[in-house]
Design a protein that fits this description.
By secondary structure, this protein is mostly helical. It has helices spanning about 1-20, 20-30, 35-60, 65-95, 95-100, 105-115, 125-140, 150-175, 180-205, 215-240, 245-250, 250-265, 270-295.
């Protein structure tokens, strides 16, 4: 039992570590002039290839056409819009800003549960939501982790990314009753890839012909390692440890993400930005504990 939990904790630590490199890899690609929407497309395509191979090996790729279409249509929003918003926020407001705003997701989930599923929000949850809101306001007022730019639209896309990420929870929960997680993400990523390819075609944006090998490796890592492999470890960890342990341990990701971009790209929040970041990450942690306690 102890050995099983140790393996599970090790798996979720690997997951958080792999996710934390997404911002850093995005910054490398952007620094070489790669378009943010092209980066999002590469991540979706490489991630889809990983899950497609996974589903072929496990013989879970075949599903009814109507279900495949629904999953792909959701992927336009849950993957296409989500990945594009992440890259645009990273470009205009900084990777640190993207991480912080993306981690408002648990609170969008709480509001969704209240409005759509009529779940009661406890007084303690209301306080936590207010703290998170205050933190988000502080981050937005700080000017981002790239204060020399004017990241108003970057802040908006960062908040949209949080909403997209939050939508994965109820959507995936519903479809897991019918299909394996790998199958769900395979078709979601396929839909997102098609949407992003169409967007790049409309914009007339393609891959530059003189990209360094390092950029291709970063794009490949974002799709195969930070998307596909990370979710494989995540699913494995949930078989070994409780959801509470997994969620709390995965909170290591935003901390590491901010550390990487601060060290390698010298991104810095203003004091009010760091205060807002601390409020958001602390409220996410407290919200997780509160939900685990009350069920």
């Amino acid at each position: 039992m102890v050995r099983s939990q140790t393996i599970g904790l090790f798996s979720i630590l690997i997951t958080a570590l792999l996710w934390s490199f997404l911002g850093l890899l995005s910054k490398v690609c952007l620094s070489h002039g790669l378009d943010p929407f092209v980066i999002a497309t590469c991540r979706a395509i490489f991630g889809c290839i990983g899950f497609l191979g996974h589903c072929i090996v496990t013989k879970t790729v075949r599903i009814p056409v109507q279900d495949a279409l629904v999953l792909m249509l959701y992927g336009v929003f849950g993957i296409g819009v989500y990945y594009a918003c992440i890259q645009y926020t990273t470009l205009t407001a900084g990777a640190s800003m993207d991480v912080v705003l993306e981690y408002t997701a648990p609170f969008w989930v709480a509001l969704c549960s209240c409005l759509l599923f009529h779940e009661r929000i406890r007084p303690g949850e209301i306080v936590i939501l207010l703290v998170a809101t205050a933190g988000t306001v502080c981050v937005c007022l700080s000017g981002g982790s790239l204060p020399d730019k004017a990241p108003v639209l970057g802040i908006v896309t960062g908040l949209i990314a949080g909403i997209c990420y939050a939508s994965h929870f109820p959507f995936t929960r519903i479809w897991q009753k019918k299909y394996h997680s790998g199958t769900i993400f395979c078709y979601m990523l396929l839909g997102g890839s098609v949407a992003l390819l169409v967007l790049n075609g409309i914009r007339g944006q393609g891959l530059p012909s003189d990209l360094p090998v390092a950029v291709w490796l970063c794009a490949l890592c974002m799709g195969l390692v930070c998307t596909y492999v990370a979710y494989v470890f995540f699913g494995f960890s949930l078989q070994k440890i409780s959801l509470l342990q997994a969620v709390i341990t995965s909170e290591l990701e935003p901390v590491l993400s901010i550390v990487w971009v601060c060290v390698f790209f010298d991104e810095r929040f203003s004091p009010i930005g760091w205060l807002g970041s601390a409020l958001i990450l602390s409220s996410v942690f407290c919200y997780t504990l509160l939900k685990a306690k009350h069920g």
